[in-house]
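Case study B.
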Amino acid sequence: DGGITQSPKYLFRKEGQNVTLSCEQNLNHDAMYWYRQDPGQGLRLIYYSQIVNDFQKGDIAEGYSVSREKKESFPLTVTSAQKNPTAFYLCASSRTSGTIAKNIQYFGAGTRLSVL
Amino acid sequence: DAKTTQPPSMDCAEGRAANLPCNHSTISGNEYVYWYRQIHSQGPQYIIHGLKNNETNEMASLIITEDRKSSTLILPHATLRDTAVYYCIVRVASLAAGNKLTFGGGTRVLVKP
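Model:
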């Protein structure tokens, strides 16, 4: 099955702990994205990457870090510097070639992070 | 990217057409209108997009006014499974712009039997 796999589905973080959320895609997409969603709100962009070994900050990158060592994988680390990490985290991917307007973002099922 | 305004919520009857409005009065010539929806606790799902012509696919129709300052997403025969939050997004389709999506609050649509 082609798609985007996020794991784990639920994650709990202790105070002062770093946690890493996994995102893997087998769609052969060049671009990947991380969004955060708070209850009742829209999605906000954390980081994005359009090519391996390169990534850019989104609107709310503080307290987060990413890596893009492989095309298929774009893990997100929520660091202890992120003081309010409780949220629903969504990963997406898209192509970057062809007609740009048609480069639709496809989303994973999300990871729900809570602080203990 | 241009800002969008959507009603916070709306109800519609199962089997009837659902018309979801979106205002984007500051849209510029190279910005597209995209619609996504998010069923509770799932990732958003792409529905349709357009620049200035009306568009239709298997899920919905998109009607964009001639001045492009507003659009309407039409779900022709709403079902209970269409209950979701619907997001109208306007963005420049450009790699230089990062192909990013900016989500507002959306419209919470409840389809009732």
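Chain A has a mean pLDDT of 92. The remaining cases will be described in the next quarterly update.
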